[in-house]
Design goal:
The complex is a heterodimer of chains A (about 350) and B (about 160). Helices cover about 65% and strands about 0% of the residues of chain A. Chain A is mainly α and about 350 residues long. Classes of the chains: A mainly alpha (about 350), B alpha+beta (about 160).
Chain lengths: ~350, ~160
């Protein structure tokens, strides 16, 4: 990737290229994320519609493919209404506080062997820090709106995120024990060698716990009590309209992309091929399918995104005490038990990972 | 029992059953009708916009008995009547308020001379508030346009009444 980008900046001295490259990567990633989030909304509406035996948006552009642009344009030309007794500064800062951590977390996420903006050693720690940070946006939005419903939504969201953050962190402890590193690239490298070497088999419970707490972290169905349109209207963003609302939306969908990507990287071998290590495709024209590539990551991410929507179309919203019970009394014990089991497996030398 | 229950919930079996149902629906053919281009069939008994009918010789059917306005649950019909040149009682004003009408069809059932009828028009709109009043002329004109169709539909339907 670096070599490819360098081609465009041949005219610059080598010293400057070193500075320009990260910026180029950031721009590529930002555009991809924003477009991805926009089309994710379209994808979500289509998937949910199909599960309701409906067609979904199909009026704007060919087969409805321009629907995201119509949505975005509509949201950005709408008036931004600030409630009269709201804290104006915080009210307008809150959407940014939820968007910035969502985007910043992508800095340490490798999309293939070479594309990564900041290849830092403690990638998982950085991710944990930033994903917890996104709760500030929600809380401040709820508080600054000066609305009971928004405040209730913010409180719910805060408690929920704290509860599921722990389960998520413990699930990551299992991953870093198995991978032997906090760097996401190294974790993927530790999973190389086919579908049976990926961490989802030895860490199966953690894989589920991680994805479930990921759904809860992003405030998605069936854990979306922070929005709960049937109870508290729209929760923390009930007072938002126009562009700030669009930014909340964007942050939510970027977070979903983040959770889906992280789950793929940490449990499904990231950009590793499904067929790597098997002999069926050797010396055939489909041999290229065995190569690790960003497309494999895209396939896995798409599957998890589909699952997000699938769950949304299938399940009713959890009651609030049930969410807390699930988080504290089920998911956290499971992760703790499995970390113990993993330690025993480690000592007994069972499992696909190499003991360092 | 408790342990069995815990094992059952941990396997997420109930959730997977639910997911299976939605996934099955995902691949089923879609039943949406693309409305303005495609329309669903309309029953012969469909109750839409009201109209006033005439006899074959062009004479108005309505005799201003006011049964329709009496039976109307929404008070949508209002009329004035006077003696006409040939000595019969006729309406001078016959207004239906489209905002009030609930399309219940009681007026049609109450009418002794089958003057007021319901067409199958359900897609109409107005841009000004005063246009909600449908005058006698409008209703008669609608009756002229849709009369044959209404008679045809009623003939098809009378066996089931």
């Amino acid at each position: 990737m670096d070599e490819f980008l360098t081609i465009f900046f041949d005219f610059l001295p080598a010293e400057s290229i070193r500075f320009v490259l990260p910026f180029m990567k950031i721009i590529i990633l930002l555009v991809a994320l924003i477009l991805g989030a926009a089309f994710l909304i379209f994808f979500e509406r289509k998937v949910i519609a199909f599960m309701h035996q409906r067609i979904g948006p199909n009026r704007v552009g060919p087969k409805g493919w321009f629907q995201p642009f119509a949505d975005v344009i509509k949201l950005f030309i709408k008036e931004v209404i600030v409630p009269s007794n709201a804290d104006r500064f915080l009210f307008l800062t809150a959407p940014l506080l939820s968007l910035i951590p969502a985007l910043a977390a992508w800095a340490v996420i490798p999309l293939n062997e070479t594309f990564i903006i900041a290849d830092i050693d403690a990638g998982i720690l950085y991710l944990l820090a930033l994903t917890s940070f996104s709760v500030y946006g929600v809380i401040l939005a709820g508080w600054a709106s000066n609305s009971k419903y928004a405040f209730l939504g913010a409180m719910r969201s805060a408690a929920q995120m704290v509860a599921y953050e722990i389960a998520m962190g413990f699930a990551l402890v299992g991953v870093l024990m198995a991978g032997g590193s906090l760097n996401l690239g190294d974790i993927v490298a530790a999973q190389s060698g086919g579908i049976l070497h990926w961490f989802w088999i030895p860490l199966f419970p953690l894989f589920f716990v991680y994805f479930i707490s990921g759904i809860a972290e992003t405030n998605r169905h069936p854990f979306d009590v922070a929005e709960g349109e049937s109870e508290i209207v729209a929760g923390f963003h009930v007072e938002y309209s126009g562009a700030p609302f669009a930014i909340f939306f964007l942050a939510e969908y970027v977070n979903m992309l983040l959770i889906a990507t992280l789950t793929s990287i940490m449990f499904l071998g990231g950009w590793e091929s499904f067929f790597a290590g098997s002999n069926y495709l050797m010396n055939t024209s489909l041999e290229f399918l065995m190569e690790p590539s960003i497309l494999w990551l895209a396939v896995k991410v798409s599957f998890f995104l589909f699952t997000f929507f699938w769950l949304r179309a299938s399940f009713p919203r959890y009651r609030y005490d049930q969410i807390m019970k699930l988080g504290w009394k089920v998911l956290i014990p499971i992760t703790i038990i499995w970390i113990g089991v993993e330690g025993v497996m480690f000592l007994a030398n069972v499992g696909p990972w190499k003991v360092a | 029992m408790k342990i069995l229950y815990i094992i059952k919930t941990l396997t997420l079996i109930d959730l997977l059953k639910g997911l299976k149902v939605t996934l099955k629906n995902f691949f089923k053919p879609k039943i949406t009708v693309q409305y303005p281009e495609v329309k669903t069939p309309i029953s012969n008994r469909f109750r839409g916009k009201l109209a006033l009918m005439k006899y074959e010789n062009g004479e108005e059917r309505c005799i201003a008995c006011k049964l329709c306005s009496a039976v109307c649950p929404a008070n949508a019909i209002s009329m004035d009547s006077e003696e006409s040149e040939d000595g019969t009682r006729r309406t001078t004003r016959f207004d239906i308020d489209a905002f009030k009408c609930v399309y219940c069809g009681f007026c049609e059932e109450a009418c002794p001379v089958d003057a007021i009828v319901e067409t199958d028009i359900f897609e109409y709109h107005m841009t000004e508030n005063h246009q909600r009043l449908q005058t006698k002329e409008m209703l008669l004109q609608l009756g002229d346009e849709y009369g044959e169709k209404i008679v045809r539909k009623k003939a098809k339907d009378h066996l089931y009444k």
